[in-house]
Amino acid sequence: MDRRLYCCTRTQQITKKQNEVSIFVKDDHSFMLVEEFIPNIPSKKIDAGSVGFTSPSNIALVKYWGKKPHQIPSNPSISFTLNNCKTETVLQFSPNTTDGFSFEVYLDEKKQPDFRPKIEHFFQRIFPYAPFLKYYHFDIKTSNTFPHSSGIASSASGMSALAMCIVALEEQLYSGLDANYLKRKASFLARLGSGSACRSIEGGLVVWGEHKTILGSSDLEGVPYPFEVHDVFKNYQDAILLVDKGEKQVSSTVGHNLMHNHPYAPSRFEQAHRHLDQLIPILKSGDLEEFISIIEKEALTLHAMMMSSDPYFILMKPNTLEIINLLWTYRKRTKIPVCFTLDAGANVHVLYPKKHAIEVELFVKNKLSAYCQNNQYILDNVGEGAERIKI
Ligand code: PMV
Q1: pLDDT at 205 over 90
Q2: Phi and psi (nearest 5°) for 50?
């Protein structure tokens, strides 16, 4: 793989090899360029048009929590790409008459000036890889299939949908770019918008972050999990229980920063590597007891890291714990291999094999939904990743 990476600081110029990656440290501003994703001069001229993509959210099994500069994860992670929780984005482009980035963002057809700083920042970050962003004015029209402010992170689906639109525009401007390159680049760009977004481009199980036994794993992009996967995991189900639909109490940026100088960070990062190693035979054999043990440990460790950081946070709510306890009692009683995972918030993802969907969904409806805000939950399952919208 011809992957060269330039990382610059003002004072030194070092060149070193790291698994086929050359790093050039040159300038203290510490910008980093990955050469294979920098395009040349466009080969075609297009004045205006539109492209559209849907892209799903994802749920991590081994969690990404903690990052280094340039959106490099401190540990590898793996997630299921979801199917129903999606963002749909249409990118309309026309000639830009200004010198800077020119765009308007709409959510459900309404202008969203609040989204502008995040998109502007994203454009600045990815500009070296998408210089054509300054050729156009963009109307970014986006909507989510999940309820607005449901407490479900829309950044993974939103950033991956936008990244797919940007590479689709690149595909129109440059000849000879193959589909695999474009998907890889979309994941690479999405990562620069929101780390976990890089795991939403591809379907099924996606790994992000270098791991010694996972072939092709990369800190720069999400890659499809390369080893054998038991059928049970190919259509795994996720009932997302909306315990708290409010704004995130701790933003991702603040949360990841809490891992700097965290006393338990080094052992947490090692644990994530180990959990991934342990998952490889489990994903192959379909051993659900072992699967559950790793998945729940990961969720609770994520929250334990937040509870033991400085400053500290409790992101679970009383109903989060009620649900976990009810789920454990239900699992013990029924022997149905159902488990939970959590993101950096109070909502609970209930994970279960498709063959138990009827019983588990009745349990969710009749018992657990009482602990959700307005009894709301979303039934989702493993999906296929980003898809083009026919315009
Ligand atoms: O992508 P971010 O910066 O929003 O971080 C997501 C972190 C977790 O959702 C808590 C875990 C993960 O791996 O998705």
Answers
A1: yes
A2: -150, 150
79: CA distance to ligand 1 center in Å? 10
Give the residue, 28 or 147, on which the prediction is more confident.
147
Indicate which CATH number applies to the domain containing 160: 3.30.230.10
Residue 42 lies in a domain: no
The residues lining ligand 1, judged by C-beta closer than 6 Å to any ligand atom, are: 60, 63-65, 77, 153, 155, 194-196, 252, 302, 343-344
Cα dihedral 295, 301, 302, 307 in deg (nearest 10): 150
Are residues 69 and 215 part of one domain? yes
Mean pLDDT of the residues in the chain? 91
Give yes or no: residues 189 and 270 share one domain: no
Stretch 299-310: mean pLDDT, rounded? Answer: 98
What is the greatest pairwise CA distance in the chain?
A: 66
Q: What is the number of domains present in the chain?
A: 3
pLDDT digits (tens, 9 = 90+) for 255-298: 999 999 999 999 999 999 999 999 999 999 999 999 999 999 99
Q: In this structure, which residue's CA is closest to atom 6 in ligand 1?
A: 196
pLDDT at 147 over 80: no
Note down the domain range covering 297: 235-381
CA of 177 to the centre of ligand 1 (A): 30
pLDDT, position 24: 42
Same domain, 208 and 113: yes
Residues 349 and 249 in one domain: yes
Distance 78 CA to ligand 1 centre (A): 11
The per-residue pLDDT for range 8-21, each reduced to its tens digit, is: 333 333 333 333 34
Ligand 1 geometric centre to CA of 63 (Å): 7
Is the residue at 322 inside a domain?
A: yes
Residue-wise burial string across 271-305, b where 16 or more C-beta atoms lie within 10 A, e elsewhere: bbbebbeebeebbeeeebeebbebbbebbbbbbeb
